[in-house]
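Minutes, project huddle
Topic: does the predicted pose make sense with flavin-adenine dinucleotide bound?
PN asked that the exact inputs be recorded in the minutes so nobody has to dig through chat later. Recorded below.
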Amino acid sequence: MTGHVDALIIGAGLAGLVAAGELLDAGKRVIILEQEPESNLGGQAWWSFGGVFLVNSPEQRRMGVRDSHALARQDWQGSAGFDRVDDSWARDWAEAYLAFAATEKRDWLREKGVRFFPVVGWAERGGYGAIGPGNSVPRFHIVWGTGPGLLAPFVHRVRQGVRRGSADIRYRHRVDALVLDDGRVVGARGSLLRPDNAKRGFASNREVVGEFELRADAVVVASGGIGGNQDLVRAWWPGRLGRPPAHMLSGVPAHVDGRMLQISENAGARVVNRDRMWHYTEGIANWDPVWARHGIRILPGPSSLWFDATGRRLPAPLFPGYDTLGTLAHLRSTGHDHSWFLLTQRIIEKEFALSGSEQNPDLTGRSLFELLRRLGPGAPRPVEAFKRHSPDFVVAATLDELFAGMQSRSPGIALDVANIRREIEAHDRALDNRYGKDAQITAMRAARRYPGDRLIRVAKPHRLLDKGAGPLIAVKLHVLTRKSLGGIQTDLDGRAIGVHGRPIPGLYAAGEAAGFGGGGMHGYRALEGTFLGGCLFSGRTVGRTIATGGHATGRASMRGV
Ligand SMILES: Cc1cc2nc3c(=O)[nH]c(=O)nc-3n(C[C@H](O)[C@H](O)[C@H](O)COP(=O)(O)OP(=O)(O)OC[C@H]3O[C@@H](n4cnc5c(N)ncnc54)[C@H](O)[C@@H]3O)c2cc1C
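Predicted holo structure (tokens), as shared on screen:
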């Protein structure tokens, strides 16, 4: 592609591709700069489970869920806990995003050919009061085809642009600086990295073989977050979550390196809320890793008993799948990095899902035949593979055997096996009545009143020591880095805000690099499925803003800082 360029987009992840698609639809010419080889096209979204937050969808209504914009707003506010001056744009982005998720998001995606699995998942259930954090109802809509299925129409649109000469994707182009002219961002310069045949997700070389500088009317930073850079995660780790773990798994590839945030700051952009992060506590080391310290997140149902590294049960409502950051804060206060799920074969079969497109070949491959196997006996094949190969799994016929296996996997930490035994026996005794005082059992029973949970997600409550439900299983869980909730502050048009509180002419940000919009539209906590959705919405907004000459919404952008 030669001649005038309307926009340079840094990053060929979902946000960058969506922005590019909007620009191409408006007849604009774009160049996407991507540090990785072509094999990585789509960035993190390709690996994602494809869970998308929708409000009051037909899928929810068919499952008997009554959702509304007002209820979603209440849940968002309860989770976000906005409390900073820096939240001013983030609050507006949250409102705009909620309206998108409650109205046109699903239709817009369907027009592009995206379809959803009919059973809506219930992520991040909360467990506090009605105005506390968490989803009051199921809202996690899984794309039929998972992450790759969501990416497909946007990849297709950009490839079409390449064929027609209005788009170009320059792989192995790593941006090292933004080019400024009289206070305006007019381009980007950086290093040409040596070509690399690395397969998707594998680290590629960083050998510099040349330089480049490109100019355009607009520059979009869509470079993702910081989750692959454990040094940065540790440096920005907030005190409210205790000390960062000495040992963490990485839930994202190495290219999620956070470099562009500093580079954008160097050009005058405001990076805010960098201490807000979304990391999981249900990480297991991938027995077949792609990237360094590759971890997979278990998306758990609510029935496993959760113990800290010494054998103390986690307090209510820190049940599996209820409160990600509450659990993280609690576990960080225990002084140990890992924790344990205790469960049965019957629970693992129904309640363990693994996040990631490659861990869900049935949904990713859109295979009804494979999907039906989920409903049949046995755990999904990828879960069984972990059970067989992963050193984090202990499978045993008796409690004594189980405890010995657990102890051997953390030899330096005394495990209070008497306490674990007492908890398990108490759990089993509590099942004698259909009511009781154990909040987790009450929560399990309540969950099964939602047809989706009863059908595929929550095992029938049963005694853990029931031989027919066995064998017993313990899973050693690690902290897994994933998402950055803060980032480059943007106004509602997606224009990057500078240190003086005004937009920097020529500079835009989208996706995780922009805290999914406004520099942190989630506030402190997320409702899940809002990250892919945040890339769609912020990428679309930025594309439309540039295509219409600088203002998609026409909202004033001057704010105090
Ligand atoms: C396993 C997994 C499961 C997930 N599941 C879900 C889910 O179910 N629901 C949900 O909502 N979210 C999910 N997510 C999160 C979601 O996928 C990401 O937050 C989102 O895809 C981020 O997209 P992005 O475009 O902002 O950034 P990225 O996908 O990180 O893309 C940024 C691109 O920019 C490039 N880049 C960075 N710096 C430079 C530079 N200096 N020069 C040139 N190029 C650069 C990178 O190489 C990368 O390709 C999941 C993520 C993972 C990894």
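Observations noted during the meeting:
- Residues 368 and 432 are 38 Å apart (CA to CA).
- The mean pLDDT is 96.
No decisions taken; revisit at the next huddle.
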